[in-house]
From TrEMBL:
This is Major facilitator superfamily (MFS) transporter. InterPro entries: MFS (IPR011701), MFS_dom (IPR020846), MFS_Na/Anion_cotransporter (IPR050382), MFS_trans_sf (IPR036259). Keywords: Membrane, Transmembrane, Transmembrane helix. It is a multi-pass membrane protein. Its main location: membrane. It comes from Koribacter versatilis (strain Ellin345). Pfam families: MFS_1. It comes from the Bacteria. It is found in: Membrane.
Length: 441
């Protein structure tokens, strides 16, 4: 008897379009993830005054998060491939939610750095696990849109964070501003544990949807007879490096926006209270970019484009669009700055959506989270280097009486463009494709 037929016997009533409900849960997880991490960046201008931190001190606290996040991406990717998406994400969300709550007990530089390190270790699993979940629950033609859905949680979480965090801060202080967002993860866990199972084991998936998800189009027959490649073998494939580069040359720019944008505005002479509405504009644009990238790429595939050609077209669009950061050096207008940042973050999200979906496009299910973790670690290394330079460079300019991030913005606009060129060169079929370890792209 087939798997689909077996599922039709003695099972609960199916949930219509269950895969999109699961995609919605992944979106909420990502939004909570970003709400938790944005708390520090939004409170940084006030915490810097209270604890007498320099920009270098703040950069080092953020870097503590990035070090754990960088190591955790590869470690958590392999962990999720081993224990499964449901269990892996349950453990890590519980971990970082608890750490967020405990951050309210921080007393200075060392304790803030310690708690941020622990937060990074837990939050590292979200993208590898979500990417793996998408590869399990969505057919190839829907994966980019499903990826856009969960990845858009990063921009939505960042957009609502100023309203949530600053409202709590101005009413009750900074400690509750860490506690309340941290509690949301435990609420999410209840829904996750109830709703998520692999498709073939899920008691509430309909026979038609299971057939749609598992219809031939993903795993090739040859791949089922192959062992899973080891880490060192995966790192020999040019496709792996294309995915690593795609994240490593874009995420540092996004994390600059999420972690430094409030400080950047203050350096421009703009107060946070007067700029609260404008702060969310780049994050809303990033959210729209996610869906534009996912939707257009899926449309191109339906029109007969190959997966590789469709993904590369959007990579080019994103790499060129992030150059919009460079003209911000020419203006002091809050809304002009927000508008240019919005163009850049929209373009970043188009590029990022392609970077996130590529592991499931190129590799088979048992390697997806691992390769996604590699790319996250590459992005983490790039972000650590970038933040260390930003902290020292901005402090050095401040010591000279120049409170400006302009040279940093010029470099930030150029880096994704270089990444685009490298991805185009590396994303190709190779010996790994011929041997069945990777799919044709």
């Amino acid at each position: 008897m087939s798997v689909v037929a077996q599922r039709s016997i003695n099972r609960p009533r199916p949930i219509p379009s269950l895969r999109w409900w699961i995609g919605g849960l992944l979106f909420v997880s990502t939004a909570i993830n970003y709400l938790d991490r944005q708390t520090l960046s939004l409170l940084a201008p006030y915490l810097k005054l209270e604890y007498h931190w320099t920009n270098t001190d703040y950069a080092n606290i953020v870097i503590a998060f990035r070090i754990a996040y960088t190591i955790g991406q590869t470690a958590c990717g392999r962990f999720v491939d081993k224990v499964g998406t449901r269990r892996g994400l349950s453990i890590t969300v519980a971990w970082y939610s608890l750490v967020s709550l405990l951050t309210s007990f921080a007393r200075g530089f060392a304790s803030f750095a310690g708690f941020r390190f622990l937060l990074g270790a837990g939050e590292a699993a979200n993208w590898p696990a979500a990417t793996k979940a998408v590869s399990e629950w969505f057919p190839e033609k829907e994966r980019a849109l499903a990826t856009a859905l969960f990845d858009s949680g990063s921009s939505i979480g960042s957009a609502i964070a100023p309203f949530v965090v600053l409202s709590i801060y101005f009413r009750w202080g900074w400690r509750p501003a860490f506690m309340i967002p941290g509690a949301l993860g435990f609420v999410w866990l209840i829904a996750w544990r109830y709703l998520y199972h692999p498709p073939q084991q899920h008691p509430r998936v309909s026979a038609a949807e299971l057939q749609y998800i598992t219809a031939p189009a993903g795993e090739s027959a040859a791949s089922t007879d192959l062992r899973s490649p080891r880490w060192r073998e995966l790192l020999k494939f040019p496709q792996t490096w294309a995915i690593i580069v795609a994240k490593s040359f874009t995420d540092p720019v996004w994390f600059f926006v999420t972690d430094w944008f409030p400080i950047y505005l203050v350096a421009k002479g703009i107060t946070l209270k007067s700029s609260l509405v404008a702060i969310w504009i780049p994050f809303l644009a990033a959210d729209l970019g996610n869906f534009f990238g996912g939707g257009v790429s899926g449309y191109l595939i339906q029109r007969g484009w190959t997966v590789g050609k469709a993904r590369k077209a959007l990579v080019v669009f994103g790499g060129i669009g992030v150059l919009a950061l460079i003209p911000t050096v020419l203006t002091q207008s809050l809304f002009a700055i927000s508008g240019l940042f919005a163009i850049a973050t929209f373009s970043y999200s188009v590029f990022s959506t392609m970077a996130i979906v590529l592991p499931s496009d190129v590799f088979h299910s048992d390697s997806v989270a691992t390769v996604s973790g590699f790319s996250g670690s590459g992005a983490g290394i790039g972000t650590i280097i970038a933040f260390e330079l930003v902290g020292h460079f901005s402090d050095a300019r401040s010591a000279q009486g120049v409170h400006s991030f302009d040279p940093i913005l010029i470099v930030a606009g150029m880096v994704p463009f270089v990444g685009m060129l490298l991805v185009l060169a590396l994303l190709r079929n190779s010996k790994a494709t011929e041997e069945g370890y990777a799919r044709p792209i």
